[in-house]
Structures are given as C-alpha cells and as structure tokens.
Design goal:
alpha+beta, 686 residues, Methylamine Dehydrogenase, Chain H, 5-stranded antiparallel beta sheet, Rossmann fold, hydrolase, Pept_S9_AS, 4 domains, 8-stranded mixed beta sheet, Oligopeptidase B, globular
C-alpha cells in the first residue's frame, strides 16, 4: 500500500511582508468529509505498516501486562473518621476509589471498604472516559466529580449521594477539566469554572444544590483572553482561592468557604510579570511570589491586615520554591534545588531540607491531606525505586515507610543503573541529562537508546519508576531524558532561557545532548530514537529539521508543529493564552523568530528519519490538523524512503485512548515501531 497523498490547495499567508505557503490548510475543516477520509486513509496506511509488527507488538504488550500487579492500592489518606484511597485490579481498565471508616491507620485492615466511585462501572466498553477531579463535601456524604467522554476539556459535574449510592439530579456542563470545582463548607453550594467557545476557563459560578443550573449565579468573569481562571480550596478548608493566571502574571481573590454568598476579596492586583499564589496557615495568609525574587520568596500577612507583609524565611537564590503545604502543626515547602525536587520543613525560621540517599529522585507531598494531620504522607521514587510512601512525623521529622508500590515479576534494582550526565550546549551552558539502563547495556559497545525531551512551560522531566519500562531495559534499551531549557529543572532562569526569544535554546540543547551521547559512545545515530509529546512534539519536530541526521527514528506525539499559523488564529482553543510562552506573531520580531524554528514552516527537500506521529481528532490543545498538515508536507518534500506514519485517534483528544490497557497497547505499538527501526531484534537478550 502506498502512503496517502493529500491534495494541495494554495492558501498563502501574508504578514510582515512575508508569504508562507500553506497548501494543506484545508485539512483544518473537520466538517469536510474529505478531511475525515484523508485521516482514515492515513490510519489504514498505519495499520498496513504495523501489520508485520503485530507479533512484536503483542509480545511487548504482554511483557507490559506481565508487569501489572494483581492489585495496587494507594496508601489511605485520613480525613476525619474516614481514610480515602484508590486501588486497581489487574483485570480492570480504570481505578476504583474507596474509603474505610477507622479511628487510626492500625484499624484499617479490619475496617469495611466502602466504594466511593468505581470508574469501571461508568465506562462503556472501549469508549473514551475521563474522570478528573473529585471533591467530597464537609460532612463526607456527597461526592462531586468531573466526567468527560469525548477527549475535550469540557467536563460535566455529577454529584453522588454516598449514603444511597445514587446520583443527584444536579448536572453542570461545560466545566473545565481541572482546578474548577469546590464545595462551600456548608455543603449547600458548589463553585465551578466554565469554559468559553475556545475551551478557555473564564467564568466562576455558584450553584445551589437542588436547583436548576439556569438559576446559578456568575460571580466572576476573566475578560482578558490571555488569562485563565481556576479555583482551589486552602489546605485548612477555610478559604477558596480564585486564581487568574497568564503565563507571566497572576491575581488571586479570596472567598470565605463558610460564607458562600459573600463577595470576593482581592489579595493583590495583577502586575505584569509578577506571579504569586496564596495559602492559609493559622492567623495568616502565606504568599509565594516572584516579586523581587526570581526563584520565589515566601511571605506572610495577617488575615486582618492583607497589606502587611513579612518574610517567613530569608530568600535564597539556589532554592526554587514552588508550593507551600501548611498543616496545623508544621509548614512544608516544595521546590527544587541542585536540579532535583525537594521538600523542606520550616524549623526555627529556616527551611530544613529532607535528605535522600539516591543521587537521582523525585519527591512530593501528597495533595488533599487533612490540615489537622499529625503525620503527612510523602511520596518518593527514582528510576530504580518504585513509588514509596512515607509517613512524616511533623513533630520529630522522622519518616516511616508505609508502602513500596508492588512490582509484578522479578525485579532486582541492583541489575540497573541510573546516572546524571551533562552535555555542553553551543553557548557553553551545561545541560543535565538523566539516564537509566540495565547494568550490562554497554558491554558490547554503543547501545540502542531513546532520548526524551519536553522543555516548555517550565514543566520538569523528573526521574520516575515505571515497571513497564523494565522489559525494554532488560533488552538493552537505554532511556535518557534531556532536561533542556524551557523546563525549570535548574530554576526559574532555566525556563526563562527557553521561551519567547530564547526558544531556540530548547532545540539546540536537545541536539547537544544527542551529540554528547554519540561522542561518548553511549549510542550511535543508527541506534537512537527521539521522543516527545505535545510541546515535546514541537521539540523533536524542530529537531527533525535541525538535526535529524542524529537519529534513526523520531516520535512526535500530539505534536505542536504549526506554530505561527496557530498563534495567529484566535479562534483556536487556548491560542491567546500561549502568546507569553512563544510570542505574538502579530509582532514582526516574534513572527520571524517563531517561523525560524516552526517544524511545519521549515520542512525541506532532504532526508528525514523514520517518523511515528500521533494525534487526536478531538484534541483541544493541539489541533489534529497540525500533525496532519505536517505529515502531508513531509510526504511531499522528503527525499528518503524512510517510513512515515500518522495515527489519529478518531474518538479521543490530547491524551489518547482512556483506560490502562488501551494506554499500554498504544505504548506497545510505538515501542514496536521504534525497536524495529533502531535494529533491536526479538532475540536480543542481555
């Protein structure tokens, strides 16, 4: 079967005296039957290409299934008389959320389980299902949860009576997928955030239980199209914070959860470039802000005098503070130092860092814990250490291991290694890389290697344990993550140096990482794959143009590749929110800089690596037409005979199919393609 050829319809874009030809612009019209026909032809071609790899795909899939434990359960978190947790059964696609009533953790084994929400009962065979946030009211008799069945960001609030097990009549549509729903303390009202026609969360509403939604009252609207609005309840449960954000600026309003009809109270007016977040602790508000402190400083102000501010601790440039976790008897702060996640406890006016043994790790404070807790649950993991939950004694600082996540099958961490590597970018900056591999992977020389990257929005690519990675490691595959600029692994400046007019650093950092791995004989171009999703798809898509010769295969998943066209189209969901990340191409300087690295605009008549590209028809973040157009242009211009496939999920969005086994099946298909192209045979064993 020959690859599909998309028809070309001239559609020039003219701006700033420049013309960009866009012959595949017509693919944006989802209502055009020819568009659906083309995507389905690409899917048929994908199926044809993958058919010889079916046995390999099944082998990889089964090796992943073998690593699924018979049962998994989170460590229960106490809220009043109940302990809440989720669990997974090996035969199920989705988690089950449950609780037990007990006086203390020691009584849990004898307590009876009560199902709060079983997502498997909500699921409809292989159809899409996403349930994101869940909120239980103060007296713990009702559960509000967000549900979606088409892969968009438009969710519906449903409310379940936990005493009867039945859903209430209240249903609230068009609610954003996260940060969008909180109860008043009395349990009579739900506050929620709705999305506009572009799926931007922008309006805050108040709903009284038992009434029709047409009686709901809008109490705040974010009119600036470059901002979004979210809500979050304080750790104490006393306040609801209404947070307006752009990529560079924030503004927070306060609502007393005990007074749901009271007006909002503004904390600080928005000021361009100033970001801050708010929490409540005792008689004070805690404010984490970058005003006068690039890596954020922690302030406090009395509840009765919001204009009075003082430092909680002295500012230290090397500590990048990201979140505060106030409890009745202690204050924890989460952030980064030395390129790794950290947790500090406030002691005697200073931050005391929790220490860990591994050279690479990720640590976090579990969310939604009780303000009155005497012990706080902390999660820890590394490439070699399964997720481990500790109980932190807030009085003594001592840690007790409560659970190590089970790993099905044989697993001996001494058979694997994790390393911290450093490449040197073209401007002399050292770029960190994390690597995990089987201890004998390099005994026969350079090894097959998959290089991951993301590098946008200040998001971090931290070490994590995955049992599903073990079969690949056991077959000699090396996994490396390049922590390129655009993330914030090395602090806030790491993010600033990889966005806007510095964005090209993200691409050149990744290329420097690839060259380092080749020069130091970890791998070779014929054995190396690059992989990235969403903005990471932009990264590896740009690298395909700038340094494709370094890779045998490139895997851009739901890739953001038609940068300039998208950032000029304000009818596309979330476009206006992105100008502070990439630039506004209506401005001449931004336009030409963005065009210089946009993957779609820089496709050339030259050889490209093998490419495995995915998208979702209902994706609100990266329109399906971006990778579709890109693939069409690549097919028309590339001069090689390498394989290029486009897989479109016709009933899903940005995150692919729902359900654990569906995710694993998709992962197995991708691995089968990669391993085939980098020459890893089924017989390869270490």
């Amino acid at each position: 079967m020959k690859p599909p050829v998309a028809k070309r319809i001239p559609h020039p874009h003219e701006l700033h005296g420049d013309v960009r030809e866009d012959d595949y612009y017509w693919l944006k019209d989802k209502e055009n039957p020819e568009v659906i026909q083309y995507l389905e032809e690409e899917n048929r071609y994908y199926d044809e290409i993958m058919r010889p790899l079916e046995e390999r795909t099944e082998q990889i899939y089964q090796s992943m299934i073998d690593r699924v434990p018979d049962s998994e359960a989170d460590v229960p978190v106490q809220h009043g008389p109940y302990f809440y947790y989720s669990r997974m059964d090996k035969s199920k696609q989705y988690p089950i959320y449950a609780r037990k009533r007990a006086e203390n953790r020691g009584d849990l084994s004898e307590a009876q389980e009560e199902i709060v929400l079983d997502l498997n009962e909500l699921a409809n065979e292989d159809a899409y299902l996403s349930v994101t946030e869940q909120r239980i009211n103060t007296d713990q008799t009702r559960l509000a949860y967000l549900e979606n069945r088409d892969g968009t960001d438009r969710y519906t609030i449903f409310i379940k009576d936990l005493e009867t097990g039945k859903r209430l009549a209240d249903q609230i549509p068009d609610v954003f997928l996260f940060g969008s729903m909180e109860w008043s303390r009395c349990g009579e009202y739900i506050f929620y955030i709705t999305v506009d026609e572009h799926q931007r969360p922008y309006q805050l509403w108040r709903h009284r239980l038992g009434t029709d939604t047409d009686q709901d009252e809008m109490i705040y609207e974010e009119k600036d199209s470059t901002f979004t609005v979210f809500i979050a309840k304080s750790q104490s449960g006393k306040f609801i914070f209404v947070e307006s954000f752009s990529k560079t600026t924030s503004e927070v309003r306060l609502l007393d959860a005990d007074s749901p009809l009271a007006p909002l109270q503004l904390i600080d007016e928005r000021c361009d470039g100033i970001e801050y977040s708010v929490e409540h602790w005792g008689d004070d508000l805690l404010i984490l802000t970058n005003e006068g402190a690039q890596n954020f400083q922690l302030l406090r102000c009395p509840l009765d005098d919001l204009n009075s501010r003082e430092n909680v601790v002295a500012y230290k440039e090397e500590q990048y503070l990201l979140a505060v976790h106030p409890f009745r008897d202690a204050l924890l702060v989460a952030g980064r130092e030395n390129g790794l996640t950290q947790i500090w406890m406030l002691r005697d006016g200073a931050l005391e860092r929790m220490e860990w043994e591994d050279p690479l790790y990720t640590v976090s404070v579990l969310s939604n814990q009780s303000y009155e807790a005497n012990e706080v649950l902390v999660e820890y993991e590394s490439f070699l250490t399964p997720t481990t939950t500790y109980a932190l004694n807030l009085q003594t600082g001592e840690r007790q291991c409560l659970q190590v996540a089970p790993v099905s099958g044989e697993y001996d961490p001494s058979n694997y290694r994790q390393d911290h590597l450093w490449a040197v970018a073209e401007d002399g900056v050292k770029i960190p890389m994390t690597m995990v591999y089987q201890k004998d992977a390099f005994t026969q020389g350079p090894a097959p290697l998959i290089l991951h990257g993301y590098g946008s929005y200040g998001a971090n690519s931290d070490p994590h344990f995955s049992p599903y990675r073990l079969p690949a490691l056991d077959n000699g595959i090396v996994f490396v993550t390049a922590q390129v600029r655009g993330g914030s692994e090395m602090g806030r400046s790491w993010y600033e140096d990889g966005k806007m007019q510095h964005k090209r650093n993200t691409f050149t950092d990744f290329i420097a990482a690839a060259k380092h791995l080749i020069e130091h004989k970890y791998t070779t171009p014929s054995q190396m794959a690059a992989r990235g999703g969403s903005a990471g798809g932009l990264l590896v898509g740009g690298v395909a143009n700038m340094g494709g010769e370094l890779f045998q295969v490139i895997v851009p998943e739901v890739p953001f590749v038609d940068l300039v066209t998208t950032m000029l189209d304000t009818t596309i969901p979330l476009t206006t929110l992105e100008w502070d990340e990439w630039g506004d191409p209506r401005e001449r300087e931004d336009y030409f800089y963005m065009k210089s690295y946009s993957p779609y605009d820089n496709v050339e008549a030259k050889d490209y690596p093998h490419m495995y590209i995915t998208t979702g028809l209902n994706d609100p973040r990266v329109g399906y037409w971006e990778p579709a157009k890109w693939v069409a242009r690549l097919r028309a211009l590339k001069t090689d005979d390498h394989t290029l496939v486009l897989k479109t999920n016709m009933g899903a969005g940005h995150f692919g199919k729902s359900g654990r086994f569906n995710h694993l099946r998709e992962a197995a298909e991708c691995y089968a393609f990669i391993l085939d192209k980098i020459g890893v045979t089924q017989e390869l064993k270490i």
